[in-house]
Specification:
Blueprint (H helix, E strand, L loop, with lengths): L5 H6 L3 E4 L14 E2 L18 E7 L4 H14 E12 L4 H10 L4 E6 L2 E7 L7 H8 L2 E3 L4 E3 L11 H9 L5 E6 L5 H6 L5 E8 L2 H10 L5 E5 L11 E6 L4 E2 L2 E2 L1 H14 E12 L5 H7 L2 E8 L2 E7 L1
Parallel strand pairs: 1-2, 1-3, 3-4, 9-10, 9-12, 10-11, 12-15
Antiparallel strand pairs: 4-6, 5-6, 7-8, 13-14, 15-17, 16-17
């Protein structure tokens, strides 16, 4: 599931970048290895050898547990004295970055630019609290999901109510299908209870979600893909697609994400195939569904969510 260039495998990277730091706020050396779990085919920061890196630049994630986990992994991977540059929007964890790094034993210089908080630190000889932060943010079994998950994954510690409404509305499905933005596999597990389903492609851009879904689903009909569903994998002639599409990008609402998922579903479905989609009531997906599909029916509505079946 993880692919690395041959030279990285043999020699190990010397510099890593996490996410997409604004280029006017941080310089990322040529050849830096991407380690964000939201970048398909990137390396995994968890796999970088301790005390091996000369530097890390990080666009720190917004969730507190997720962010401390990423910072702790970066500090573990850095050589003593090597530099960590971390940044985040002030209202999405940036205001706490400095305190979090100081709690790990770092001396920190801070500045603010373009609504971001930038922190510059060097890895101390003996960082404090790394193991605890890594354990808190690591993959773990979640009783409410009856399966594995990880902080940072969508609705990581409880079932999303939209997904539950979609599961309740689904009829018995059959043939080959796909789950777009599968998360840890909550919807997919329900789909695979239908005996007439012959195959199911699970696709998510988050490596952590795919790794959790691998642990949660033991079914030979399931195939999992760490990919951006808007472009990969190559699919065609599907009988059905199910989805609870994302509508946030970097913390900001982005209706275009769900619209792109809908267009991709139409592209990969066979004629007569059906799309089952759940969305927040306020999202204007009907304007995309109606021109593309032969029929669009509202199948359920509750708790601020709506479920549609769209048939090609």
């Amino acid at each position: 599931m993880r692919r690395f260039e041959a030279d990285v495998l043999s020699q190990g990277p010397s510099f890593c970048v996490y996410g997409s730091p604004p280029p006017d706020l941080a310089t990322v050396p040529a050849g830096a290895v991407q380690v964000s779990p939201l970048t398909p085919e990137s390396a995994a920061l968890e796999d970088i050898a301790p005390a091996s890196l000369d530097g890390v630049v990080m666009a720190a994630p917004p969730g507190t547990v997720e962010r401390r986990y990423a910072l702790a992994l970066a500090l573990r991977a850095l050589k003593p004295g090597a530099a960590l540059t971390a940044m985040a929007p002030k209202d999405k964890g940036g205001s706490r970055l400095g305190k979090e790094l100081k709690a790990f034993g770092c001396a920190v210089e801070e500045t603010g630019r373009r609504h971001q908080r930038l922190c510059f630190a060097a890895r101390p000889d003996e960082p404090q609290g790394l193991d605890a932060a890594i354990a808190a943010g690591a993959p773990q079994r979640v009783e409410a999901l009856d399966g594995w998950s990880q902080p940072g994954v969508f609705s990581w510690d409880r079932p999303d109510p939209g997904s539950l409404l979609l599961i309740q509305a689904l009829p018995p499905l059959s043939g080959r299908g796909a789950d777009f933005g599968c998360g840890v596999g909550l919807i997919a597990r329900a789909v695979l209870t239908h005996p007439a389903v012959t195959g199911l492609e699970l696709i998510d851009i988050d490596r952590r979600a795919i790794e959790a879904a691998h642990r949660n689903i033991n079914d030979p009909r399931a195939r999992l893909h760490w990919a951006d569903v808007r472009r990969e994998p190559a699919l065609e002639g599907l009988d059905f697609v199910v989805m609870n599409p994302p509508f946030h990008d970097g913390g900001a609402e982005d209706k275009a994400l769900g619209q792109a998922f809908i267009r991709r579903a139409h592209q990969v479905l066979a004629k007569g195939g059906s799309l089952w989609i759940v969305a927040n009531r306020h999202l204007p997906y009907e304007g995309v569904l109606n021109p593309l599909f032969a029929t669009v029916e509202l199948k359920a509505e509750a708790g601020g969510f709506k479920v549609y079946e769209a048939r090609k």
